[in-house]
Amino acid sequence: MADRMPLEGTVALIAGAAGAIGSATAALMARRGAAIVAVDRAGSDFAGVRSQLPAGARLETITADVRDEASVAHYVAAARAAFGRIDIFFNNAGIEGLVKPIEDYPLESFRDVIDVNVIGVFLGLKHVLPVMYGQGSGCVVNCSSIAGLKGTPGLSAYTASKHAVIGITRSVAAEAGPRGVRVVSVNPGPIESRMMDSINAGQSPDPKAAHAAVSAMVPQQRYGRVEEVAELVAFLASDAAGYCNGGIYSVDGGMCAV
C-alpha cells in the first residue's frame, strides 16, 4: 500500500530514538521521506535504528543526555547543522523507573524518572520551539502514556511524570499555536516492548501471568505493537493533522474507554 501521509522534504528529530517506539517511528518516517535525526543516551544501539531504515535514508545520530540543558542545546544545534531545519520533534525519551509502593520508593529513583520524563521533555521544548518559531511551522509530538490519564499501583513516579507531560503539552500548545507550531501528545497503552516487560516483571513474580492479566483489561484483548504507535505519531506530525493542536491521543486498544 502506498504511504498515505508523505513526509517528503521534512526533518524529524526523535529523542529516545533507540528505544522500541522511537526506532519504529524513525523507520516509518524515513519510509515516508523524512530525514531523521536520532538522539539517545550514550551506549544506545543506533545500529539497530539504522538497520530499520530504508536504503538511501538520511540519518544523523547524536548522543545526548536529555536531563542536561547543554546536551539538549547541542543536539538541537547538531540537527540544524546537519539538515538546516527541524519540522518534526518526537519528544519521546523516557524511563519507567521502579515498580514499588510509594512508601518503599527511593527518592533518588523517583527523581531520576522526573528528570528524564519531565525535565527532558521541558528542555526539548525549550530548545526546539525557537527553531520552529523561526521557521513559522513545525509539530511537536510529546510521548506521554495512558499512565498520564489514570493511575497504576506501584508506578507513582512514572504516572506523575506522564501526567506532567500532558499538562506541559496543553500549556505549550496554547503558546505555540499562534506562532504556526502545533504541540500534541500520544498516550500509548501496553505495548510489546522492553519497557512493558520490565513493568510486568516488577508487578509480578510471573511476568507471563502479568502480561495475560493486562491483556485481559484491554478491550482488544492484546498488547499493541510499536508500529501502531508510530503510525499515530507520523499522522499527527503530518499536514493531514494540520488542525490538531493541544490534543491528547491514546493508542491503547480501548483501555482508557473502560
TrEMBL record:
<comment type="similarity">
    <text>Belongs to the short-chain dehydrogenases/reductases (SDR) family.</text>
</comment>
<dbReference type="InterPro" id="IPR002347">
    <property type="entry name" value="SDR_fam"/>
</dbReference>
<keyword id="KW-0560">Oxidoreductase</keyword>
<dbReference type="GO" id="GO:0016491">
    <property type="term" value="F:oxidoreductase activity"/>
</dbReference>
<feature type="domain" description="Ketoreductase">
    <location>
        <begin position="10"/>
        <end position="194"/>
    </location>
</feature>
<dbReference type="Pfam" id="PF13561">
    <property type="entry name" value="adh_short_C2"/>
</dbReference>
<protein>
    <submittedName>
        <fullName>SDR family oxidoreductase</fullName>
    </submittedName>
</protein>
<dbReference type="InterPro" id="IPR057326">
    <property type="entry name" value="KR_dom"/>
</dbReference>
<keyword id="KW-0520">NAD</keyword>
<dbReference type="InterPro" id="IPR036291">
    <property type="entry name" value="NAD(P)-bd_dom_sf"/>
</dbReference>
<dbReference type="InterPro" id="IPR020904">
    <property type="entry name" value="Sc_DH/Rdtase_CS"/>
</dbReference>
